[in-house]
Structure formats: C-alpha cells, structure tokens
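W.,

You were right to be curious about this one. When I first looked at the sequence I had no strong expectations either way, so I just let the prediction run and decided to look at it fresh. Below is the sequence, 345 residues in total, followed by the output.
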Amino acid sequence: MSEAVRILRDAPLDHRNTFGVAARASWLAELGDARALPEILARAEFRERTPLVLGGGSNLLFAGDPPAPVLALTGQDVRVLHDDAVAIVRADAGVQWHGFVMHTLDQGLAGLENLALIPGTVGAAPIQNIGAYGVEVREFIHAVEAFEPATGQVHRLDAAACAFAYRDSVFKHAPDRYIVTAVEFALPRAPSLKLDYAGIGDEIVAMGIAAPTPRDVADAVIAIRRRKLPDPAVLGNAGSFFKNPIVPLAQAEALQAQYPAMPVFRGNDAATRKLSAAWFIDACGWKGHRDGDAGVAATHALVLVNHGHASGQQLLDLARRIADSVRTRFNVEIEPEPRVIGATW
C-alpha cells in the first residue's frame, strides 16, 4: 500500500465535523496523494458502497453514522501553473480554504478576499459553489480536477462543465459520480474590489483605510464574520445552515408589500428574487432559541449551533421545525445548505 494512505477501522468522526456531533465510520481512508484513489477503491471495504468524501466537515450534518466508508483527501500541494495578468493557481483538494485564500493574497493575487475565513477545504469549494459578501467561488474557478470511480478516469472540468448555480454544481447534483481532487483558480493581479455588500465598505471606513487593498478587504470580512458567526472551535456549527430562498418576482413583491422591511436581492434572472432566510427565521422568533444543546446562534439566525452534546438528529429536528414555521407563516420554503448524512431532509 502507498505510504500516502492510512486506513482506520471504526473511526470516530466527532473531530472531523465542525458541528462536533458524534458519528463513526466503518472504514476511513486518509489519502495524501489522490493518485492512490484507484488502489483504495479496489479494496473490498471501499468497493461495495460509494464512499463519502469528507473534507473539513464544515458543510455536513451527521444525523447518523455514514452508511458508507469515508475518504479524506489530505494533499497539500499548491502551485502556480501560469503567471501573467491573470494567474492560474492549482491547489489540492485537502488544502485548508482560508489558508489558501490568505496565501493567494500574500502572492499579490486578487479575487478571493470576500471569501476569507470560510471553513472547509479547497475541494469542497466548487461542490457547494461557496459564496459570501457578494462573491461566489465560481467567478474564479478555471477548472476542477475530479476522479470518476465508475470509470477510473480523471476528468478536468472547465467552469461551464461544472454547471455552477447558487450553492450548487454538477458535483452536488451527482455526489457519488466524482471525487474532486484539485481545483484550478484564475486570479487577477489587478484587483476589482467588491465593497458594497453587507457592510464591508463601512468596516473599511471604520478601519481608517481610504484606498483598500484586497488584503484589507479580507481583513474586513474576517472582522465581520468573527463578530457575527460563532467559532466552530468554541461552539459547534456549520456556518449558515439554510440557503436563501429564490422565489418568483410576483411572490417577492407580494411579500414585500406585506412586510416592507423584508430584504430582497436579485435572483437568478429578472423573473426571480432572492430573499433572506435569516430574516424569515428571525421573524419567526428563532434567533437565540435553544432546545437542550441544539440551538440557534444568538448573533445570527442562519446558524444552528451545538452547545455541547447535541446529536445530529436533534439538530436536524430543530432545523425541520424552523423550516416548517417559515413555510406556515410566509409560504416560503427554506432548505439546508449542508449535506445531511444518515437521514433525509
């Protein structure tokens, strides 16, 4: 077996998910080199059921033990493939996302500054099409390298082939088809800063900066996130638990006429609008709510938290109650952003 591979049986996953909920994997394989995937997937333990690929564990909820073995890609290679006005930077799936963002900024590359301090790994970024503060990662993805277990082939999918949408991609639609092994980013050296979202401009003014750099924007985002979002190392959470709902324009206008304070944002096209899930949840009185150790953050209504020993099922039950209350009061469906493992939504 390759020296880059470590296989564990009956492996605890408590410290491999940011909710900190208890779960166990029948088998867990850690791969420092994605080229070992065919070797691992040929083993009987991993051949019978499609493995769950686990990154930083920041975008899933274990409502039970995973029904399949678990793979963790841990490679840490980062390299510049092409360096010009727009640099092409390739990073292994196992690279920690925030560290990668700060590394690119240190290299004078712009684009990812609004996505600073998002937990998780590079490999998870395209799956979810992570986004924050007016930026989605798809804007800077050049290509995604992925292994297809069914064929044993390695694919290099350009951005169009990834079928990116709001918190969505081809990888999320077919979670068992591909294993993301690396991501290539196209990052400009001349920044085009986005400062008009969720108080970033005000934060920079408060910092006393007149001509901000991409690193200044990242620092502002980090400061805002630390104020609003609990640290998973202190209070278990997976960041925003619910996606902002996208509804037809007529429905958004009717709701806004009834609730003038309700935030409304542009949707996928002129016929849709994106609404604030946090506003709906807060309006239903959930912010700061707690049932035993399962609760909603006092600082942000979108964030479910584990106050200590909540089970994944308890957190899922709370999330369902929240979604039911929003549906009943506003006739709006809100859906989870993390992937639920061991149960159905």
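Here's what jumped out at me. The chain has a mean pLDDT of 95. And, maybe more interesting for your project: The longest helix spans residues 312-330.

Coffee later to discuss?

I.
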